[in-house]
Amino acid sequence: MSNWTTVTEFLLLGFSDTRELQILHFVIFLAAYLAALVGNLLVITVVATDHHLHSPMYYFLGNLSILDLGSISVIVPKSMATSLSNTRTISYAGCVSQVFLFFFFAAANFAFLTIMAYDRYVAICKPLHYEVVMNRRACIQMAACAWAAGAINSAMHTGNTFSLPFCHSNIINQFFCEIPQLLRLSCSDTYRRELAALAFNVILCLGCFVFIVVSYVQIFTAVWSIPSEQGRQKAFSTCIPHLIVVSLLLSTAIIAYTKPISDSPSPLDLLAAVLYCVVPPLMNPVIYSMRNREIQAALKQLLHRL
Predict the structure, then answer these.
(1) What are the pLDDT digits (tens) for 189-227?
(2) Helix, strand, or coil here: 9?
(3) Phi and psi (nearest 5°) for 55?
(4) Fewest Cβ atoms nearer than 10 Å: which of 31, 106, 161, 266?
(5) 3-class DSSP state of 10
(6) What gap in Å lies between CA 63 and CA 148, rounded to an integer?
(7) How confident is the model at residue 207, as a pLDDT?
């Protein structure tokens, strides 16, 4: 007990100690953040303003874009400020906020990806029941459950993590406050409680992923029976991008949260963090807008009005 000290701030990992590379990191993250900001705001705007897109699929896509904006805004601006100012510190309260908000947005994001798989399954495999199953009330309830699940999940992990005493160090070997790296700093055996919660989360995410894969197997089976080539292309254009996003998000997050925690900075840890924190919010609007003709048409109309 005598070695325990009160931690008031943490030191984040910089991408480099070289000033030129710090500026390069700032420019790359700034470009990625602006691209994600513009892309997701465009999706939110067209979904909200174009009445042709007032359907369950685009309602969930709009929510997904809001979550993407939130998740990348929690991580990237702080990392850019760290590189630009060459100041690695983050306050204890700032770290708590970062963990809570990122887990909230990430958990709700994955819940919406699961709901969107179910929406596509009903639309393609049970089209005659679609309007009954995916009615306005059901969509609002599903969305509310996804947001609530994100908040509950985040509160559980944040509470478990920051109830631990930190005494080994205050240096986080990551460019943001990541839970595995925080557990490494703990000097209490009760950190296993949070490890158990993380393991439960991984199992839950894998369960959702199995549900998504099974949904898409049935979707692809039904698609091949569509006589119209245009109908098959439309189905694939909405399903394949969704599957790519889910696979990227889940695979990189599992790598980051299940691999053994290293005592020294690891390039693999940095790469995995960038892939699950920065790439999905950046790629979601690109994938959906490039592969979805209705989004493209709505964007053209919006630009024409402007």
Answers:
(1) 666 676 777 777 878 888 888 898 898 888 888 887 767
(2) strand
(3) -135, 165
(4) 31
(5) strand
(6) 13
(7) 86
Taking every pair of Cα atoms in the chain, the longest distance, rounded to a whole number of angstroms, is: 74
H helices of 50-178, in order, are 56-85, 92-125, 130-133, 136-162
| Residue 242 structure tokens | 């969704």
* Alpha-carbon torsion (206, 211, 217, 220), positive or negative: negative
pLDDT tens-digit readout, 24-74: 989 999 999 999 999 999 899 999 988 888 889 899 999 999 999 999 999
> From CA 242, how far away is CA 41, in angstroms rounded?
19
Helix/strand/coil for 278: coil
Under DSSP, is residue 187 helix (H, G, I), strand (E, B) or coil?
Answer: coil
Regions in the chain scoring below 50 on pLDDT: 1-2
pLDDT at 238 (0 to 100): 64
Q: What is the pLDDT of residue 124?
A: 85
Angle between helix 229-258 and helix 92-125 axes, rounded to 10 deg: 150
**CB within 8 Å of 82: residues ≥ 6 apart:** 12, 14, 88, 175
